[in-house]
Write the structure tokens for this entry.
Amino acid sequence: QPVTTDMATLMHEVKKFASDKKVEIEMLKVREEYRREFLGNVSHELKTPLFTVQGYLSTLLDGAMSDKTVRKKYLERAEKGVERLIHIVQDLDMISKLEVGDLNLDLTDFDIVKLIQEVFDLLEIEASKKDILLLFDMRYNKPIMVRADAEKIEQVVINLVMNSIKYGKDKGSTEVSVESLTDKKIIVRINDNGVGIEKQHVPRLFERFYRVDQSGSRDAGGSGLGLSIVKHIIEAHGEKIYVESQYGKGSEFSFTLEKAFA
Ligand code: ADP
């Protein structure tokens, strides 16, 4: 399924059989196909918000401008569309860097508990819009030092907590915990009691542009790139990411990290 398989997996498959020129040509074709699909996906993603913005602006120019309340409403909607475009472009920027392996990890020792609390502060307002509680397992409310790229891991935690809010139910909760897994590893879990994910979608969630076709997904302003970014970052660290979900009940995303040994 070249439409959705990511480049690295695809090239790996093809390389296994790379013994002659013919195969080299095949590899070029695969790469070309990949590029075409990527561009196709990108323009498709950009079209919707662009047309939305254009729609509101032309309606304003066609006369809606004179009504003060309509004017404000339409300008706000146009602004939302632009915000969405910015978000998509930022995600695309990130994914293209990640997919060509152009990702320099800046490894340092830092406290993962503090990082999670900072992400909570950042997303508190977003969560409160849906009356969602952000909880941290207090048992581990002491520093837990890990060795990783702090900025990239912050992106991972933001994307996962943000998803738990986007796909969470009103008045629900998101609970994050950190646990020691082995001598060398810890595991971070992000648990929600939201809409959950039907079984058949689970294996494809981390593909870029893949979205479960559920109401709200698009409104939530996602690009379908969030989880793909998360997976790339975790795998660049040589770590693992897991998902468990029960449709209608909730989901748990978890990932491992290396403990810091100072
Ligand atoms: P999006 O930008 O659409 O949120 P993601 O890559 O972050 O893209 O997620 C892909 C899809 O996985 C989403 O469209 C959503 O359907 C599903 N998903 C992700 N996180 C959750 C969650 N916590 N609960 C339910 N569904 C989720």
Summary: Residues 21-61 form the longest helix (41 residues). The mean pLDDT is 88.
